[in-house]
Each structure stands twice: as C-alpha cells, then as structure tokens.
C-alpha cells in the first residue's frame, strides 16, 4: 500500500468486523467507531482503537458525516471504508472524505450520485444500450412524475406494475399493483414511505416481470481502465423485497448466459467511469431475457458467496484499487469453482409477519465445520437494540456442488445456538428444505408462494413428543436448581418417599399454551401426559444446559438456557422460547382487551394519525412505529373514542409502552 496505512471503518456489527479482519491481515492499522449502544460490541474490541461517535440513533452517530470525519481526523486515519449500509452510498460523504484528504474506499462521488437514483441510473443505462425494464421515468422534457401523470402512464404500460422509489432501496417505497383501481393509493403510499425513508418522494414505474429471478453481477474497476466481472449471484429468495438467501452460481444461469450478463455489466460500469466494487442487478425473465434494475455502488452483504467460489478477498481488492493499484487479475485469470449459499440470520419473528425482535443474547454459539463460514458481529450477553438493521449474522456454506453446499448450510443452521432473541433460523431451514429451492426452480415469488402466513404460523410447531420433552426439561431444570440450592445430590431429583404425583406444567410460546403433567418415576425418568397421550422419557445430563433425551429407544440432544420464567430450547435445530405460566392467575390469562394500544417492540414513533377525542373504528391506523428499518402500523383494537395519546413523532419507546388508549365511550382513561 502506498497511501493507505490506517483505515477507519465507518460502520458497525458484522460489516465492520468483516472489513477489519482483512485490514488486519494486510497489516493495516484499524479504527472502529461506535455509538452509545455499541460500546462493548465485538467490532469495537477487534480494532486497534475505537472512536465514540454519539448517541444510539444512527442519525446522531453512524450517519453523521461530521462526526465520522472528526473521528478519522482525531485518530490519524488516512482512509475510510464505509462498509455497506449507512453512508456507503452517500455521495456527500464520499465527496467530504476526498475534500478532507482521506482516501475513500469506494467509487467516485459522481458515480454514487448517478446510480443512487433509479430514474437517472436507468436513463444512463438506456443511453449505454444496457437492456432495461419497460416503464416510465419522465425521460423527455415536460414529462411529469406527479401522481396524475403516473396513474395515466401506468394505465398505458399495463398491469401488473411496479411502483418504485427512485432513491434508496431495500424494498422501501416499492409496491406491486395488479388492479388499476389500486394504483393511485399505491403511488401515494410508496411516495410517503420513500419520503420518510430517503428524503425523496420521486417515483418511477416499471412493468412487473412475473416469474423472474433476481440475479446480480459482481463488478470491479480500477483507475487504469481495467474492468472485470466476478460472476453472478442469485438473490431471488426475498421477503418484502429484501434478500434472505443468496447463492453463486445461479441455478438458472448457463455459461453462455453468464458471459453475456457479465459483458453487459462491465459495459455498464465502463459507461459511467466507475472505480471500485459494485453490483449490477438484473431481473432474469423465464425466457432468458435479462433487464437492468439498479446498481449498488458498494460491496454487497452477499459478497462472501463470490469470495468462496473465486478464492478472492473482495475487501482486499477494494483497498488495493482505492490505493491506486490496478486490478489484481484480468478477466481471463478469474476462475469459478464449486457452489456457495448464504443465509441472512435476522432478529425477527416470521410467525408475526417478520416483526423485528430485540433483547439480550443469552447464548451465541456459531456452527463450525468443513465449508462453513459465519460472518457476524455479536457476542453472548450483547443487547440487540431497535436502532439498527435486524440482520445479526450470515451463515455461508461452500461445497463442490450445489447440493453439498445446501446440506452443509442446513446442518449449520441446526447446529447454531442463539437464545434470548427470536430469529428467522427455522424459516431459513424450511426454505432450504423446500422442493422448489432444492430443485433450483424458484423465482422472486418464492416466499409468497411457498411460505404464506398460515405456513409461517405453524413452522417449527412442536409435536406431542416435542411438547413432552420441553415440559420435562423445564421440570428437570427446576428440580436440579432446587437440589443445588438445597445442597443435596442431583441424582435424587424426582425422588419421593411415596407415590410420585403428577405436576402440572403450562408453557406459552407467544401464540398458544402447552399443557402437560409431569410425573417423576425414577431419577432422571419421567412420564409426561399431553392431553390423552402419555410419553415416557429419560434425561441424561451432557454438561451445562445440555441434556440427552431418550424416548422409545431414540436419543435426541437438547440445548437449553433458562432466563427467569422463560425456557429457551433447541431441539433438532428448532429454537423455541417458552414462558412458564404454570402458576399465573387465571384472571390475567383471561383478561379482556382494555383498549390500550401497546408498542410491539422497542422503536421510534414516525407518525401519529389520531388525537384525543377522535372517533375510530377497529383496524384504523393510529400510530406508526419504526424499528430495524421496518415500519409497523399500530391499529385501533376496538371501535371507540381515543381517550389518550402518549407519544409524539420522534419519540423512542420501549416494547409494551402504551402509545394510545381507545375507549368504547368518550370517557377519561383510567
């Protein structure tokens, strides 16, 4: 390196950890930045030094250009790597870095600005003869992007139709419209969301290509005229237009198609004078036609699958290109071997519409094994807060072929231990095991077609035997704790001088109750009754919070962790959180709704659509809360009159906070 000796990583979590590891491998000194919420985060501990940015909200810390630049200056860094997310695609930040004399590890500000706007990017790609999706972008003078013009042009293009925010990404400000009568409301809704998320309500329209796959091409360019592609990634498994699973190579791309898509991607970056890492995203139609969607002017979350099949370190390439070096390899020297699949582990509950989850990580044990890579930035005991993205880690599996990679990833997810915060692990395992994914014949409609809400509700549902095991583990853990407290041998657990009586156990998984009766019959042996079914089982301790359960000659290992009255348990790779409500008063369980509208998670209030005295109907949206980049509408629980509003726009509220009260009649709230 000629100019780069000390790198400040302007990011957090697994992103920062990923960049820091390559910097350290290259012998570069490193600087981390952190907010109040991340004082003890792994990325802070990994760097040579760390600089405090400010309060937990991203706009007051990680998104503050002034604070990041001040940290870089005070630490003596000579380069800034933005990672991905936050300021990585902010042209003002890239320009400010250069103006302040720092090497920005990314593309020129002009390229970020151009390609960061879907409308301008599409117009430039059309001028460069890159195939684009038919639509409306107000390309000619005098054409309008106002609501009425979009409705008129939408009718001309035809349905189904996509309404897209010109700025930003991540699926926000995007709507699929099938019914002409729903177009105006979709435009207004998308414009409002885009304005709130990106500060711009500019929209474009595109024809919806059904049955298409989302296939992107990794590209790189240097300042010496070199430009290459590193193959494609298939990112078609998405929920709410956000990627969940990515793989390389794509099951739908032949060598000939790869060559054509790669050539077009390189043609695209040459047309804009690009430098550094980027991704050209295409929609691949069932007939093999492909169309430009957008460009990400940064490294992607899913870049590890490309690294595994090429054997390259893309962060190292970024650093070398930013330092003025030519690309390490020519196109002819780049080879592809094997197959890699990545899954994004997110703190969210699929059964509740992928609602983001917060809490403290009671246990975090990532899997290991041949072909397994885990990129993460979390640790046991860390608080998962509502201030940042819900993705906590990426599990990536590599194999000589696709099926080996798929099986290794599925096994890694079964081995993963994460207690304290609900994740999408069970959902990912379901996707990996689904025939549509196994066959490779899937598209961007996979989640909607194969995991509808009713399927998500029953994913990981415990069988009768599973329920018996969970009840016995809870009972046994209580008995062992009692033995330890009383100072007697744990082998006497369950002993009784008379006939052992069954003990009722009631657990709640957040959706339903599990009722069982547990009767000790011998040390570490129990009869458990679930309804009319009796299950005989024995437990054998394997160490701290690990037991082996034997039922009818079949042994199964169980990992668990207690947190007060909550049992976190992993059985056959399915993690469940169950609350012990055996002794809860019936009046609490059966209490009717009191009209109080509570926040479902920690978050920030971004909209209040009601006021005291307003008459509302059940289902009316009263408040909108944002957490982990997701908006949640809080609706009136009953018909009535609003008698209290306890929040204002911008307020940060904890989970269960009463944001408003709706009373059947106009009377003061208690």
TrEMBL record:
GO terms for molecular function: ATP binding; ligase activity; metal ion binding. Coiled coil: none annotated. Residues 122-323 form the ATP-grasp domain. Gene3D superfamilies: 2.40.50.100, ATP-grasp fold, B domain (3.30.470.20). Residues 3-452 form the Biotin carboxylation domain. Residues 587-663 form the Lipoyl-binding domain. This is Acetyl-CoA carboxylase biotin carboxylase subunit. InterPro entries: ATP-grasp (IPR011761), BC-like_N (IPR005481), Biotin_BS (IPR001882), Biotin_carboxylase_complex (IPR050856), Biotin_carboxylation_dom (IPR011764), Biotin_COase_C (IPR005482), Biotin_lipoyl (IPR000089), CPAse_ATP-bd (IPR005479). Its cofactor is biotin. It holds the Pfam family Biotin_carb_N. CDD domains: biotinyl_domain. Keywords: ATP-binding, Biotin, Ligase, Nucleotide-binding.
């Amino acid at each position: 390196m000629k100019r780069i000796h000390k790198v400040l990583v302007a990011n957090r979590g697994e992103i920062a950890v990923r960049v820091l590891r390559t910097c350290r491998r290259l012998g570069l000194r490193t600087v981390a930045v952190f907010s109040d919420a991340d004082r003890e985060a792994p990325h802070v501990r990994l760097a040579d030094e760390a600089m405090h940015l400010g309060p937990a909200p991203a706009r007051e810390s990680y998104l503050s250009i002034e604070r990041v630049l001040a940290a870089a200056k005070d630490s003596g860094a000579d380069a800034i790597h933005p990672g991905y997310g936050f300021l990585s695609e902010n042209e003002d930040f890239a320009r400010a870095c250069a103006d302040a004399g720092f090497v920005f590890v990314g593309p020129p500000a002009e390229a970020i600005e151009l390609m960061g706007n879907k409308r301008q990017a599409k117009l430039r790609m059309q001028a460069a003869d890159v195939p684009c999706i038919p639509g409306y972008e107000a390309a000619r003078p005098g054409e309008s992007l106002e609501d009425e013009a979009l409705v008129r042009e939408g009718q001309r293009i035809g349905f189904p139709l996509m309404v897209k925010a010109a700025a930003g990404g991540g699926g926000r400000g995007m709507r699929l419209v099938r019914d002409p009568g729903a177009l105006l409301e979709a435009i207004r809704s998308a414009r409002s969301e885009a304005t709130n998320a990106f500060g711009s309500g500019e929209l474009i329209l595109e024809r919806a290509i059904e049955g298409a796959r989302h296939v992107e091409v990794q590209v790189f360019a240097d300042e010496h005229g070199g430009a290459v592609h590193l193959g494609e990634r298939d990112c078609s498994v998405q929920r709410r237009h956000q990627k969940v699973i990515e793989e390389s190579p794509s099951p739908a791309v032949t060598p000939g198609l790869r060559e054509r898509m790669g050539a077009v991607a390189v043609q695209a970056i040459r047309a804009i004078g690009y430098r550094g890492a980027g991704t050209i995203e295409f929609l691949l139609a069932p007939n093999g036609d492909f169309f430009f969607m957008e460009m990400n002017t940064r490294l992607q979350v899913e870049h590890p699958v490309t690294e595994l099949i090429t054997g390259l370190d893309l962060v190292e390439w970024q650093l070398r290109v930013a330092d003025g070096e030519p690309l390490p390899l020519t196109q002819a020297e780049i080879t592809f071997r094997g197959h890699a699949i990545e899954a994004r582990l997110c703190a969210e509950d699929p059964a509740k519409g992928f609602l983001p989850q917060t809490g403290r990580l009671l246990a975090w044990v990532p899997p290991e094994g041949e072909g397994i890579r885990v990129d993460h930035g979390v640790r046991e005991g860390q608080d998962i807060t509502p201030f940042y993205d819900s993705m906590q880690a990426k599990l990536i599996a590599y194999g000589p072929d696709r099926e080996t990679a798929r099986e290794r990833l599925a096994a890694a997810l079964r081995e993963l231990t994460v207690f304290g915060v609900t994740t999408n692990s069970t959902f990912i395992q379901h996707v990996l095991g689904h025939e549509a994914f196994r066959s490779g014949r899937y598209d961007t409609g996979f989640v909607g077609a194969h995991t509808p809400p009713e399927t998500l509700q029953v994913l990981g549902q415990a069988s009768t035997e599973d329920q018996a095991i969970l009840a016995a583990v809870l009972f046994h853990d209580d008995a062992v704790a009692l033995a330890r407290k009383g100072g007697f041998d744990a082998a006497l657990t369950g002993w009784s001088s008379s006939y052992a009586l069954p003990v009722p156990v009631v657990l709640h998984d957040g959706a339903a109750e599990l009722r069982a009766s547990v009767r000790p019959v011998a040390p570490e042996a129990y009869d458990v009754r679930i309804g009319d079914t009796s299950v005989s089982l024995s437990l054998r301790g394997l160490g701290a919070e690990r037991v082996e359960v034997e039922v009818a000659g079949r042994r199964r290992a169980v990992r668990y962790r207690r947190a007060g009255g909550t049992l976190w348990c992993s059985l056959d790779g399915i993690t469940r959180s169950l609350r012990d409500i055996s002794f809860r008063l019936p009046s609490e369980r059966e209490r009717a709704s009191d009209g109080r509208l509570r926040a479902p998670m920690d978050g920030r209030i971004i909209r209040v659509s009601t006021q005291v005295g307003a008459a509302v109907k059940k289902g009316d949206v009263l408040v909108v809360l944002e957490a982990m980049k997701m908006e949640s509408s809080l609706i009136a629980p009953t018909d009535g009159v609003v008698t209290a509003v306890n929040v204002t726009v911008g307020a940060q509220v904890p989970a269960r906070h009463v944001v408003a009260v709706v009373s059947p009649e106009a009377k003061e709230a208690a």
